[in-house]
């Protein structure tokens, strides 16, 4: 997502990955840190999303939380890996690997919130309808409307739909008060992080020339403070992570297992859902 920028740091013919073919080039100077990574900080800052996703996949499998829960974390992992590939290479093929999974993770989150019960209530009609919709969007974006604005609008609509269903689940009477308090906290943290990231993303696009001059003035490694697209990655990694934890925990609440699990932080910074300590279980 964002604006196309002409990067004059180096002759494109000298790029390790060759000439840029992506429809986007971000504010970070290309190949300024490494000869092998086009946008170094934009690549590195995906560690937040990939780590939270890996923790989710591990814990959902370890505690047999169901295929739908594992699938949303796998989709989030694909977003992180796709973003790494895109920012490292600035190729159109890897740009699609970054952008399209963003739609898929929102769709899977929406589906998981709708089909929250142990048994499937909508049969095959809902997943087929969502799959057809996303296939149409994917093909349209790849072969017809190759405009990042189209992707941004569809992503916003899909995320809004998932957010509405998340809010609906928060107010379900089957969710205990203790579980609801944690869910509200996850909901608020997710939206605060996403909106803060969106703010940083816009500043990066609007004030790119000034940000580049600041980075040139302070030099490495302090220039990372002004790599606002990288901060977008970090903040949206947390935002997406908190919202998927919400989906995960809502499912636990609906099956009556929420009192057995809680949110903890791996290394003190990466949130994930794990079993409570035995002495804390009623």
Textual characterization of the structure:
By secondary structure, the protein is mainly α. Helices cover 63% and strands 4% of the residues. It has nine helices and two strands. Helix 2 runs parallel beside helix 9 (228-254), helix 3 (67-89) packs antiparallel against helix 9 (228-254) and helix 4 (92-114) runs parallel beside helix 6. The N and C termini lie far apart (47 Å).
Q: Into which percent range does the helicity of residues fall? A: 55-70%
Helix-strand category:
mainly alpha
| Gap between N and C termini | 47 Å
The percentage of residues in β strands lies in: under 5%
Low-confidence stretches: none
> How would you describe the shape?
globular
Number of strands: 2
- Rg measurement, Å: 20 Å
User: What summary fits the major beta sheet?
Assistant: 2 strands, antiparallel
Task: Write a compact overview of the structure shown.
The protein is built from 9 helices and 2 strands; from the N terminus they run αααααααααββ.
């Amino acid at each position: 997502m964002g604006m196309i920028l002409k990067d004059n740091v180096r002759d494109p013919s000298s790029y390790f990955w060759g000439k840029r073919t992506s429809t986007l080039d971000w504010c970070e100077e290309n190949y300024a840190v490494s000869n092998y990574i086009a946008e170094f900080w934009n690549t590195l800052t995906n560690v937040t999303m990939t780590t939270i996703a890996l923790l989710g996949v591990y814990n959902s499998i370890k505690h047999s939380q169901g295929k739908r829960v594992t699938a949303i974390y796998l989709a989030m992992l694909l977003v992180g890996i796709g973003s790494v590939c895109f920012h490292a290479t600035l190729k159109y093929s890897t740009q699609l690997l970054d952008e399209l999974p963003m739609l898929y993770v929102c769709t899977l989150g929406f589906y998981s919130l709708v089909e929250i019960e142990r048994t499937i209530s909508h049969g095959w009609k809902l997943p087929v309808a969502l799959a057809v919709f996303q296939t149409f969007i994917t093909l349209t974006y790849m072969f017809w409307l190759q405009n990042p604005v189209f992707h941004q609008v569809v992503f916003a609509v899909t995320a809004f739909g998932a957010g509405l269903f998340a809010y609906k689940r928060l107010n379900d009477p089957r969710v205990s008060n203790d579980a609801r308090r944690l869910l509200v906290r996850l909901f608020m943290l997710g939206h605060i992080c996403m909106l803060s990231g969106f703010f940083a993303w816009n500043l990066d696009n609007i004030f790119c020339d000034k940000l580049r001059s600041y980075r040139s003035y302070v030099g490495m490694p302090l220039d990372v403070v002004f790599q606002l697209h990288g901060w977008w990655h970090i903040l949206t990694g947390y935002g997406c992570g908190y919202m998927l934890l919400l989906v995960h925990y809502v499912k636990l609440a609906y099956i009556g297992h929420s009192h057995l699990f809680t949110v903890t932080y791996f290394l003190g910074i990466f949130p994930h859902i794990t079993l409570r300590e035995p002495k804390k279980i009623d």
